[in-house]
Design brief:
This protein is α/β, with parallel strands linked by helices. Helix content is about 25%, strand content about 25%. Strands 3, 5, 6, 9, 10, 17 and 18 form a seven-stranded mixed beta sheet that branches. The longest helix has 21 residues. It is globular, with a radius of gyration of 20 Å.
Amino acid sequence: MARIKAAICREHGQPMTIEEVELRAPSFGEVEIRVDAVAICHSDISLWQGGFGGSLPAVYGHEAAGAVTAVGEGVKGFAVGDAAVVTVIRACGACPSCGNGRPSSCEDPGDPAAGPIASPEGEPIWQGVFTGAFAEKVVVDQTQIAKIPSDMPKDAAALVACGVITGVGAAVNTAQIRAGQDVVVIGAGGVGLNAIQGARIAGARRIIAVDANAAKLEGAKEFGATDAILADGKPWVEVKKILGGRGADVVLVTVGVAKVYDMAPRYLANGGKVVMVGMPHFGSNATYSPLLMAAAGQGLVGSSMGDVIVKRDIPWMVDLYAQGRLKLDELITRRWSLEEINEAFADTMAGNARRNVIVLKHD
C-alpha cells in the first residue's frame, strides 16, 4: 500500500484535516493516478455539508488531472506516465444505460463502500463519488479517465473532469441545441459559463445569462452570452422582450436552488424544454403546472454530467481548448495548496470564484 496525504472530512460542515492515509494498489481494471491539480466543485461542498448523504470519514474531490503511476491487470490503452483527466463517471458497460450510450447514468457503478482508502489503523475511509481526489494520489476505474496531451496544463485540464463537461455537455448532448435556437442559462458560475460556451459552440442565436450577481453577468459575456439579465423581479419578462415576445427554446438551470427551478418554465417558448443541471440538496423540491406545460408542449429533462461519454467528449473538448475555441484558463480564479483546502472551500462558498483549484506539488 502507498502512504499518501489527503484532506479528510470527519464531520459534515467542519474543517477538513490533512492526514496520512493508506491507498491500496490498483486491482483488475483500475489505475493509480498522481493528482497534480483538483478543482473545487459545488458538489464537493454539498457532500462536505452533508446535503448529498454519504459515509464518514471521507475524502472528496472529483475534478482532477495528473499522471498514471500504476495500472492493474486488464487495463487497456493506458500506461505509466500517461497524462490523464480523472472524472466521477464510472461505468459498468453492461447495464441498460451504458448500453444505450449513457454511461454517466450507469445503473451499476460499483460498491461505494469498497473503496481503496483506509487510515493507517485500517479504518475504512469513503472515497467520495468513486474519486477522492483531494489527495496526492487516487485509484479509480479505467472507465473514469481520459488521456490528455502531456503538455496540457493540469490546472486547466482538471476543469474538464466535471464543470466543463457538465456545462458544455448539457448544452450539446442533453439539450441538443441546434443552430439558430434561443437559450437561457440561469446561473453564471463555473458550470453556467460552460453551458454558455456549449450553447455558443452549438450555434445558438441568442444566449441570455441570468444571475443575481451583476459582476458574474459581465463575465458571462466573455464566454459567449449575447445578453445578460439580473435575476431581480421577473427576469423572464425581460428575456421575452429580448426574444421578440417569444420565450427560449432551451433553459439550462445550472444552480442548485429549488426555487430557481420553480421559475424556470416561465422563460420557455412553446415546445421549449428546461434542462436540469444544478443539483439542490436532498429534500429540496420544485413545483410545476403539468397542465400549462403539457398544453404548451414543454418539457423537463435531467442532465447527469452533461450526458458525456468520457473517451469521446473529453478529447473533443481538449482539442477545442488547444484551438482556442473553449476557454479553460479564464475559468480559474485562484490556485491553492492542499493545506489551504478549508480556506479554498470558504472562498468558493462566498460566491465570487469561477473555479478554485488545488495544485499539488510532488517531490
